[in-house]
Amino acid sequence: MPLLPMILLAALPVFGQDQATDRIAVRFVVRDDVALKLASPALRLDLGTAELLPLVDDGSIDGDIPGDHVWVGEMELRRVQKLAFTLLDTSTGQAQGSASLFLPAADDAIITLRTMDGDPPLVIEGEGGASATGDGSTSTAAPSAATADVEGSAERFTYLLWVVLLLGLLGFGYLRVVVRRIYIQDFLPTWRKLDRWLDRENEGPGDRR
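The chain above was modelled as a monomer; its predicted structure follows.
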C-alpha cells in the first residue's frame, strides 16, 4: 500500500477523537439595558439538538449585577465550527432574534450580545471577551458581527493552509521514494546494459578477435 494513504488513514482516528473530546466553556452576556425587551430570557443553542440555556440577572453568576438588565449564562459545550443560537423570552414564548459566529480556538470565550428595538433585533457586540461598543447602535454593532465571521474564516484558512502544507510535504517525500525506486530498478539496469553495448560496439575488429 502506498505510504501517503497509510499515513492519512492512521491519522483519521486521531482527528476524530480530538473533535469528539474538544470542548469550550462559553459565557453569554445579553445586554438588554437599552431596549428593555426581556423578562425571562434563554438561549436556544443549535448543537445538533436544541439545548436551552437560561439567562439570569440575579447576581447568582460571578460578575453579574442584579437587576441591571444584563443577562448572563454559562455553559461548557462541544466545540463546533460555527455556533448558531436564538434568543427566546420564555415568559412570552417569542423569539427575540438569532445570530451565529465562529468559536475561537481558546478553551473559553465570552460572547456579548445586545437586544435592539429595530432590525436586526439582536446583534453581536463582542466575542472572546472584547466588546466593540456599548451604545447599542446598529451602525457600529453590525460590523462587529461581520468581524467575528471574518476572524473565524481566518482561523479556518490557517488550519487549511497547515493541512495543505503537511500533505505537500508527505507527497514530496513519497515522490522521492517512487523516483528513487524507478531509478534503481528500471533506469540504472537499462543504463548499464546500454553502457556495455556501447563498449562492445566501440571495440575494433582486432580487439574482438
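The longest strand covers residues 23-31.
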